[in-house]
C-alpha cells in the first residue's frame, strides 16, 4: 500500500484547512484532538525542540521517497531538503551553503543595490503606491532568477510556476491548487533539467547556486533529480518569502511610525539589527515537526509520532522572553528570534534576505522621513506565510 499523504485524502482536498486551527492558550503546548496536532508557542521551548533530534520532519514526504511517483509535484518535493532530515539533508544542504553564506552574498550586494535603486526610482514623497504589488515582488524575484541562471528565460511563466508551487506549501490545499502545482512542477523540472545538463556550463559570478549544484551533479555527488529538486526549492523559497517580508517591513515601519533616517542609521551602525523585523513580523509563521520520541513539554506528554506545529510568530512575540514584544525596536539587538526557524533547517537564505531588506529600507530613507498607510490593506489568508497582498502607502517628505 502506498504511504499516506494528506494530498491523497479526498477529505483533505475537500476542506482547505482540515488539519489545523489556531488556538489561543497561555500554556506551553496545546493539543487539538480534533485536528491531531500540538501547537507550541513559547520561545524557549520552540528554540530548544527545533534544535534537537527529538523532533524531525514528517518522513511521509522525505524518507519514504516518492522519486518514482507519477506525480511531478511529489517527485520534486520528496527530495527537498526542507522536508527531509539526516545525511540526505546535510549532503544537499552543504552544497548550497557557501553561495548563500554571508561571504557568498557579498558578491550579490552590488546587484541588489542596483536593482533596488531601479525599483524605487519612480517613488516620490507624497505619492501613494502599493508596496505589496509594485515594490515587494521585483527585487527578490530578480535576485533568485540571477542566482539560478534563469535571467534570460521569459519571466511570466516563471512567476506563475513559482506562485503555483508556493501555494502547495500551505498545510491543506484544494484540488485546483494541487493541479496547478502538478503542472508547474512538471514545467519547472523540465527547465531545470535542461539547465543542469546543458553543455554550455554557467558563469559562476552570475548564477552562483546553479554553478554549485551543477558542479556537484557533474562530479557525481548528487543525482540529476536531487539537483533539479534543490534548485526548484531555492527558486520558490528564495523569493516568495522575501517578497512577503518586504511588505511586512514596510507595514511595520508605518504602524510604528518609525523615522526612516533613524532606522537606516541603526542598520548601518549594526547590520544585525535587521533581525528585529523578523522577530516583529516574519513571513513564515509556523513549521511542522513529528515527535521522534516521547516528550515532556511543561508537564504535557507529547507521544512519539505526534505532530507538532511550532508557531514561530507567537514565539517571536513571547512576552516572557521578549520585553514589550509588540513594539518594533531595532535597538533591542534581537538575534534570538525564530523568524528563520532554528536547528538544522535554519533558513539557508537568511543573509540574502537580510541584505535585501536592508537595501529596501535604505532606499526608502532616501525618499522621505516616514511611511504612512494610505488605504485599505489586504493580507494573505495563509496560516503559514504572512504578508500583505495589497499595502497602499505613502512616504512623507
Ligand atoms: C524573508 C525571507 C525569508 C524567511 C522569512 C525565511 C524563513 C525560513 C524558515 C522559517 C525556514 C525554516 C523552515 C523549517 O524549519 O521548516 C527556512 C528554510 C529555508 N529557507 Fe528561508 N526564509 C527566507 C528567505 C530565504 C531565501 C532568500 C532563500 C534562498 C535564497 C531561502 C531558502 C531556504 C531554504 C533552502 C530553506 C530550507 C533549509 C533546510 O531545510 O535545511 N529562504 N526559511
Which descriptors apply to this entry?
binds protoporphyrin IX containing FE; oxidoreductase; Cyt_P450_CS; monooxygenase; globular; alpha+beta; disordered N terminus; 11% strand; 5-stranded mixed beta sheet; Cyt_P450; 3-stranded antiparallel beta sheet; 17 helices; iron; Cytochrome p450; 397 residues
Helix content: 40-55%
Stretches where pLDDT is under 50 for at least 5 consecutive residues are 1-27
Shape: globular
Major sheet attributes:
5 strands, mixed
User: Under the CATH scheme, which class?
Assistant: Mainly Alpha
Within CATH, the superfamily carries the name Cytochrome P450
Alpha-carbon distance between the two ends:
65 Å
Tell me, rounded to a whole number, the average pLDDT.
Answer: 87
Hetero groups bound? Answer: protoporphyrin IX containing FE
Structural class: alpha+beta
CATH architecture: Orthogonal Bundle
Order of helices and strands: HEEHEHHHHEHHHHHHHHHEEEEHHEEEE
Protein name: Cytochrome P450
Keywords: Heme, Iron, Metal-binding, Monooxygenase, Oxidoreductase
Pfam families: p450
Family: Belongs to the cytochrome P450 family.
Can you characterise this structure?
The chain is α+β, with helices and mostly antiparallel strands and 397 residues long. It has one domain: Cytochrome P450 (Cytochrome p450). Helix content is 47%, strand content 11%. It has helices spanning 10-14, 43-51, 72-78, 86-100, 102-106, 109-120, 131-135, 138-147, 155-167, 175-197, 208-218, 224-237, 240-255, 260-269, 275-281, 312-316, 350-367; strands at 29-32, 37-40, 55-56, 129-130, 286-291, 295-297, 300-302, 307-311, 370-373, 378-379, 388-390, 392-396. Strands 1-2-8-5-3 form a five-stranded mixed β-sheet. The longest helix has 23 residues, at 175-197. It starts with 9 loop residues before the first helix and ends with a strand. The model is unreliable at 1-27 (pLDDT under 50). The chain binds protoporphyrin IX containing FE. Residues 81-82, 93, 100, 144, 233-234, 237-238, 241-242, 245, 282-284, 287, 339-341, 345, 347-349, 352-353 line the site of protoporphyrin IX containing FE.
